[in-house]
Structures are given as C-alpha cells and as structure tokens.
Amino acid sequence: MTLRLALHRIHIEPAIATNARRLQTAGLQVPVLAQYKRAERRVFSQEPPTRLTLVRVLIAEDETIIRLDLRALLERAGFEVCAEARDGEEAVELARSEEPDVAVLDVKMPRLDGIEAARRILDERPIPIVMLTAYGQEELVSRAVEAGVFGYLVKPFREQDLLPAIHAARARHDELSALREEADSLSEALAARKVIERAKGLLMAKENLSEDEAFARLRKASQVSGRSLKVVAEAVLATFGADA
Fold first, then answer.
1. In the chain, what is the straight-line distance between the N-terminal and C-terminal CA atoms, in Å?
2. pTM of the model
3. Top CATH class, 56-175
4. Could you please report the per-residue DSSP string of 87-143?
5. Mean pLDDT highest for which of 5-19, 119-133, 180-194?
6. Please, which residues bridge with residue 80 across strands?
7. Tell me, what's the pLDDT at 240?
8. N or C: which end of the chain has fewer CB within 10 A?
9. Where along the chain do its domains lie?
C-alpha cells in the first residue's frame, strides 16, 4: 500500500514531472535532451555563488564552563553564537533583541527556569529550541512539550549529540509551524501533531523513508489536495490500518 493509494481516500492525485520528462513527452530525442541539459548547466554556472548564511544561536546556561564549551562546539560546527545568557530572564530579553534562529536553553537557571523562558520566547517569536537538562524526568519533558519545545540534550552531552538535537528541533519546529497555520491554538496544533507523528511512522516503516522525507510527503499531499495535514495523516492511518 502506497501513500498515493492512501491519499485517494481524500481525492488526491499528485502530478510531479521533471524538466527532462516534460521534454520527452514533447517528443524531443535523447541528443536534444543532452543539449538542453548542457545549456542548463551553463546558465547555472554563470550565476553568482550564494552567500552562506550562518544559523544564529542564543545560548542560555548559568554555568560558565558549560556555556563556553557549548559556544566552542557550536562555532566549530559552523553556527554563529549571537548571544549568551546566564539566566532565564536574560535569555528572554536577548531572544527579543537579537532575534536568533535557534535557542539552546538550560532547564535549571536562576530567576526564570528554561521551560518558562522557552514559553515566553515562543509566545513572542516562535523559534526552534533545544533544552539542556541533567534530568531524565518525564514531568520536565511533558512541561517542555506543552511549551512547544521538541529538542533535548542530556548533560553531560557529547559533540556528536549536539547537531542531531538542533536538527531535530528545527525539523519539529517547522512541522509545528505548519500545523499552527491550520489550527486555532497551540493545543490544537500539538494534538494534530500526535496524529501526524503516527502517520509519519507508518510511512517510514512501509515506504522506507526518513522522518524528514515522510513529513515532506504529507506536507506535499496537503498542499496539492488543499486539505489539512491532520486530515491527510488520518487518511494515511486509515489506509495503512485497513491494509494491516
């Protein structure tokens, strides 16, 4: 059972074609296609190189050594650390003034804890947030999820843990942003996300996709059909459930 068959339940018929396939449909032969591709390469090679934009990161950590280590790790990985906070209130202020692309916040900080700081930051300007914690407590994770945080690092963390955590937080943030465009509130978006997580899992298992690829499939189907992501996800669940 494929995603296309699942989406037939809500009358979706995606149509995707490459430039080469369009040319073949128009009756052009292989030599003409090759000439087209060479011309296309020449055009793109003449374009000025795109300037690399660094991802700007806000760090909030009250322990100086950990904060300095984190900054070094981020800069070595190619990020720009635009601001450093030593407590939760300062993190909220710097997020407002510096407008970072990502924030990395410690859970336990003076004046304002990381979860409440994340909540206030997200209320003003939603960004991906990674939470640093020395605890594996389910209560903290639940509070963080309710605040809209989906990236975690447990201290002491390793350098190879940092990039996947940031990547995951950015991916989940993009998903939640797409859902919030369709929902009336954050709570509705979070409820819809649970359905979408299940649909992604089925697509990953059935069609051998990565998590990002599975979400891209769902989002593409939503855009083509004009239906919400939740409706598309429910169609996938219904179809794969029936198939099982």
1. 10
2. 0.59
3. alpha beta
4. SHHHHHHHHHHH--SEEEEESS-SSS-HHHHHHHHHHHS---EEEEES---HHHHHH
5. 119-133
6. 56
7. 74
8. C
9. 18-47, 56-175, 183-243
CB 77 within 8 A of CB 100: no
How much is the average pLDDT of 174-200?
Answer: 71
Residues 75-113 have pLDDT tens digits of: 999 999 999 999 999 999 999 999 999 999 999 899 999
- What DSSP string describes 53-98? PPPEEEEE-SSHHHHHHHHHHHHHTT-EEEEEESSHHHHHHHHHHH
- As a whole number of angstroms, the distance between CA 181 and CA 159 comes to 34
Q: How far apart are CA 59 and CA 237, in angstroms?
A: 39
Beta-sheet pairing, 80-85 with 56-60: parallel
Query: Among 225, 221, 192, 227, which residue's Cα sits nearest to residue 3?
Result: 221
Q: How confident is the model at residue 33 (pLDDT cuts 50, 70, 90)?
A: very low
Mean of per-residue pLDDT scores for the chain: 75
Measured from the Cβ of residue 80, the count of other Cβ atoms closer than 10 Å reads 13
**60 bridge partner residues:** 85, 105
Question: Domain 183-243 carries which CATH code?
Answer: 1.10.10.10
- The helix/strand/coil state of 153 is strand
